[in-house]
Design a protein that fits this description.
Layout lengths: L1 E7 L4 H5 L12 H15 L5 E4 L3 H14 L3 E3 L16 H7 L1 H8 L12 H16 L6 E6 L1 H12 L3 H4 L10 E7 L2 E9 L2
Parallel strand pairs: 1-4, 2-3, 2-4
Antiparallel strand pairs: 1-5, 5-6
Helix pairs in contact: 2-3, 4-5, 6-7
Length: 198
């Protein structure tokens, strides 16, 4: 039975400030580095066989800490990046609500957002599903750790489980350096646990 542990990266300064990161390449904060080290120890106890990460540095830095704890080599995949938010990146919720009130309300409600430069949910789901399936294929019957981003993780989990966007949107946000566990058996993928970590 193949296990996928889909982990969110550690905290960044923009996380702490409540800023939309999207695909802006922000490094981990000191808190984020400490979270990554702790996650590395916890994930090492899961005896993973493969470690794959988004190529954005907050994910690769998190994956490096996991690699140090597990002895695995990190493979990066740009398809695991966060949803692209274009002109929204770097803004806080208050700034978004002022500049894009209608679109922001739709986004908060989990509805589609039509703003030039903001990636469509179907595109995120499609690339995340493909990346997760490729990662899982690297260790059939083994355990694969994937380090990605909060919104991307939600869409990836939903896509593998066959959930429509409205259902995927109800999945709670992953805390920094927490993960979802999916297992693939004869009946396909199943969500075993969500928001694991310490």
């Amino acid at each position: 039975m193949t296990r996928l542990l889909i982990c969110r990266h550690g905290q960044t300064g923009w996380n702490a400030d409540g800023r939309i990161q999207g695909q802006t390449d922000i490094a981990l904060s000191e808190v984020g580095h400490a979270q990554a080290e702790k996650a590395g120890d916890l994930l090492a106890a899961q005896h993973p066989d493969v470690l794959v990460a988004s190529d954005l540095q907050r994910a690769t830095q998190t994956a490096a800490a996991i690699a140090a704890a597990t002895g695995l080599t990190v493979t990066t995949d740009p398809r695991l990046r966060e949803r692209g938010y274009g002109p929204w990146e770097g803004l806080t919720d208050d700034e978004l609500a002022q500049r894009y009130p209608t679109e922001f309300a739709c986004w908060r409600a989990g509805e589609p957002v039509r703003v030039d430069g903001v990636e469509e949910l179907a595109e995120v789901s499609g690339r995340m599903s493909a990346a997760l399936l490729d990662a899982a294929g690297r260790a059939p019957g083994g355990t694969v750790v994937v380090v990605t981003h909060g919104g991307a993780a939600r869409r990836g989990v939903g896509a593998l489980l066959g959930w429509p966007d409205g259902v995927a949107s109800t999945l709670g946000s992953l805390a920094n350096c927490h993960w979802s566990e999916l297992r693939r058996g004869r009946a396909g993928w199943r969500l075993i646990a969500h928001n694991l970590g310490a």
